[in-house]
Amino acid sequence: MVETIKINDNTWRFEDDSVRFFLFCGSGRAALIDSGMNTPNARQMAEELTDLPLILINTHADPDHISGNGAFEEFYMSPAEEENYRENGGKGTLIPVKEGDVIDLGDRPLRIIDIPGHTPGSIAILDEKYRVLISGDSVEDGNVFMFGKYRDIDLYIKSMNHLLEYDGMYDEVYAMHGSIPVKPDLVGKLIKGANQIKNHEVSGRELDLWGNKVVLYKFPYAGFLYESRL
Ligand SMILES: [Zn+2]
To answer: What is the pLDDT of residues 74-106, one digit of tens each?
Structure first.
């Protein structure tokens, strides 16, 4: 069961089990940001809340973020994510976005920030007007997935350092998993944790996740699910 929660007059979040996605409205158009895990009707859900022309922006293409993409002929996504998207059965035409691009919804510019690492084409979206950062799965206080194909912890650390350059431009982070909102200082903590994992300075707990042997590294602020090194 999906829950629709109003954040303010121009912003909604949809809670779809363990993942969420958003509807942002400007003065001229609206954007669905991701399309959920069990929600092929995501477009319809958004159109029940706004009459504005609707676009779709995906933070990345893991299966829990694209279930409603099929209702859109085109969508905004990093081209570095296209392979992952097609492998997950994604359809439609990718409109490429990259670092520095601004998608204006009308008095509500959304700035694209490239943060590869969780996936090759992960992006963050800076909502300058409301001073919010949409972080996809890269900044969250649940467990950041860093095992398996396409994950790259070095790139992740580099991207999180890049994100620090936007410090002071947002007051809250909206993640697609875990708590909402989380505070911007989580970025620095995740950098520290990811470095500690990379440098073997911390130990984790091996577990089986959908047939994958992974290691959970749990910190007070978040966790990482990383490759088993055995
Ligand atoms: Zn996810």
So the answer is: 999 999 999 999 999 999 999 999 999 999 999
CA distance 78 to 59: 8
Q: Cα of 206 to ligand 1 centre, how many Å?
A: 21
Determine contact, residues 69/58, Cβ cutoff 8 Å: yes
Burial class (CB in 10 A: 0-12, 13-18, 19+), 24: buried
Q: What is the pLDDT of residue 230?
A: 56
For ligand 1, the distance from its centroid to the CA atom of residue 19, given in whole angstroms, is: 6
The pLDDT score that the predictor gives to residue 62 is 97
Long-range (24+ apart) CB contacts under 8 A made by 208-215 are 209/147, 212/147, 212/148, 214/147, 215/147
Tell which residue, 166, 154, 136, 143, has the closest CA to residue 198.
Answer: 154
Residue 146 CA to ligand 1 center (angstroms) comes to 11
CB 170 within 8 Å of CB 131: yes
- How many whole angstroms from 36 Cα to the centroid of ligand 1? 9
Could you tell me the distance, in angstroms and rounded to a whole number, from the CA of residue 215 to the centre of ligand 1? 18
Q: What was the pLDDT predicted at 229? A: 73
**Residues in the chain where the model's pLDDT stays below 70:** 230
Can you give the pLDDT at residue 187?
A: 98
Question: Torsions phi, psi of 4, nearest 5?
Answer: -105, 125
197's enclosing H/E stretch is helix 186-198
